[in-house]
Structure formats: C-alpha cells, structure tokens
Amino acid sequence: MQESISSDEDEIPILIWPSEDIVLNLKGDLKENFNRMLAKEYVKKKVIFEYLVCLLKGEKKMKASINVVNVIYNSNSKSTATWI
C-alpha cells in the first residue's frame, strides 16, 4: 500500500523572491537578538541575509552564493564561520 508523500494543500512554494521587507525584518532580527542567538543560528541567519541582499542588488544566484561564502568565510574579524 502506497501513501502520497504530499498533497496539494500542504505544498509550500520553495522559490520565493526576496522583498525589501523580508530583508529589513531579518536585519532587525539579527541586530535585536544578537546576544540571545547561538553562534550557529546567527551565522545561518547572517548567510541568508547576505544572500538576499545580493539578490535584491540584481546579482545572479551563483554569483550571490559565491559572494556570501567570501563574506562569511574570509572575514577579517577574530572569528569566522566554519559551518554554513
């Protein structure tokens, strides 16, 4: 007996183009909750934020991904991300 893995009602669009509202909300969340987030959670949200900013600037997805990795991994700060 086979069951359907997903139904039409439960499907969520995977590709959502970023809006300025989403980016501003994420930026505010990063600033307000900086001290309350785990480092791993902060880095994950920071990566998403940087990626969405690149997309809003009109960069292609691959170029945006490369830029985000460079920002996160090659930061001049004392500590840099080792996991995304």
Which descriptors would you attach to this protein?
0% strand; flat; mainly alpha; 3 helices; 84 residues; single chain
Describe the 3D structure:
This protein is mostly helical and 84 residues long. The chain has a domain at 20-71. Helix content is 52%, strand content 0%. It has helices spanning 20-32, 39-56, 61-73. The radius of gyration is 16 Å and the shape is flat. Mean pLDDT is 76; it is low at 1-14.
Concise summary:
The protein is mainly alpha-helical.
Q: What fraction, in percent, of the residue positions are helical?
A: 40-55%
Q: Would you tell me the overall average pLDDT?
A: 76
The counted number of beta strands is 0
Strand content: under 5%
- End-to-end CA span: 39 Å
Cα-based radius of gyration, to the nearest Å: 16 Å
Instruction: Specify the biggest β-sheet.
Output: none
Low-pLDDT runs: 1-14
Order of helices and strands: HHH
Helical run tally:
3
Structural class: mainly alpha
Shape: flat
